[in-house]
Specification:
Mean pLDDT: 87
Oligomer: single chain
CATH architecture of the largest domain: Beta Complex
Distance between the termini: 142 Å
CATH class of the largest domain: Mainly Beta
Low-confidence stretches: none
Number of strands: 26
């Protein structure tokens, strides 16, 4: 039989550790009055279906009353989250009741007495889709004497998605800005798109390629009495339109003299069958000038009439 004095003397270190742990647990759990605090906790929604979105303003924070039998340090509750799983939700009005299981990252020994407001009200709406135009956004001006003539976008339209009320206000999506300052020639630019609203999602993951045509500024000339010729001549075929008016443009640096004699309107009737009614044909405008560089720089802006009349007899 072990006497009490012997029991106390056996394994004294282990007994002191057990006594210390017992005192610590009593001090944490039973040695103090219950501590109650109210903390503000952010709301976090998880597992929302990709074809759904929250369409109305919602509670982004809740007040959580917590309790513990020990003092709770401020940093211990800074990571608390009110986590709400929306995996099973469908479109419409949703009412979500919160309980202790929704409060994540709770320190050991901390319980939840209440959550306010509770329940939470949400409006879930089906995501809509539409195609919109790409709008190039440019900054700066070309070099002096040059101008931006055309901007082509590839693709010209992109798919976007979002809430119906938001998409109704979106007609185009602009690109990130492209600087054309001091440019005297065209170039291509690969740019991303810039959503006009954080709730509008651009469903095209690829960047947009912009083709920018920059050229020397031009001046326009109106030329009259441009001869219309049948080329090649053909028996039984006659021109009812003998001359026309052209508006052509030339680079401002072009110094040559230009007149109606420098151009002709050529018409081919090889494939036309005899008919009682006259044909209307779009002519081909050609430079017949001795100025060799004219053919490389002129541009037809308009012509009158736009089509010439040709008659083919039997």
């Amino acid at each position: 039989m072990i006497r009490p004095s012997q029991w106390l003397l056996n394994n004294p270190g282990l007994k002191l550790v057990s006594l210390g742990l017992s005192f610590l647990l009593w001090n944490l759990l039973g040695g103090k009055d219950e501590v109650i605090r109210v903390v503000t906790v952010p709301v976090q929604f998880v597992n929302l279906a990709p074809d759904l979105a929250i369409s109305t303003d919602y509670q982004r924070q809740v007040e959580v009353t917590i309790r513990s039998r020990r003092r709770i340090a401020v940093e211990e509750v800074q990571g608390l989250l009110a986590e709400i799983d929306l995996q099973t939700m469908v479109a419409g009005n949703v009412q979500i009741s919160l309980n202790e299981r929704n409060i994540s990252n709770r320190p050991l020994g901390v319980g939840v007495l209440s959550i306010a407001p509770n329940p939470l009200q949400l409006e879930l709406e089906q995501i809509q889709h539409k195609m919109v135009e790409v709008r190039p956004r440019l900054e700066g001006e070309p070099a002096e004497g040059y101008e931006l003539v055309e901007v082509l976008s590839s693709p010209q339209q992109v798919p976007i998605s979002g809430l119906e009320a938001v998409l109704a206000k979106v007609s185009d999506i602009s690109t990130e800005p492209v600087d054309i300052s001091g440019r005297s020639s065209g170039f291509d630019a690969e740019v991303d798109l810039d959503s006009p609203n954080p709730s509008v999602r651009i469903d095209s993951g690829s960047p947009v390629v912009l083709q920018l045509l920059i050229e020397e500024k031009r001046r326009e000339l109106t030329l009259t009495r441009i001869p219309v010729e049948l080329d090649p001549p053909r028996d039984g075929t006659s021109l009812l339109t003998r001359s026309m008016k052209l508006v052509v443009s030339l680079p401002i640096s072009f110094e040559g003299e230009v007149s109606g004699k420098d151009f002709r309107a050529r018409v081919s009737a090889d494939d036309l069958q005899p008919s009682r009614r006259a044909y209307e044909i779009l002519p081909e405008i050609e430079s017949v000038s001795e100025q060799e560089d004219l053919a490389d720089v002129y541009r037809v802006e308009s012509m009158e009439p736009e089509q010439v009349r040709v008659r083919v007899r039997r």
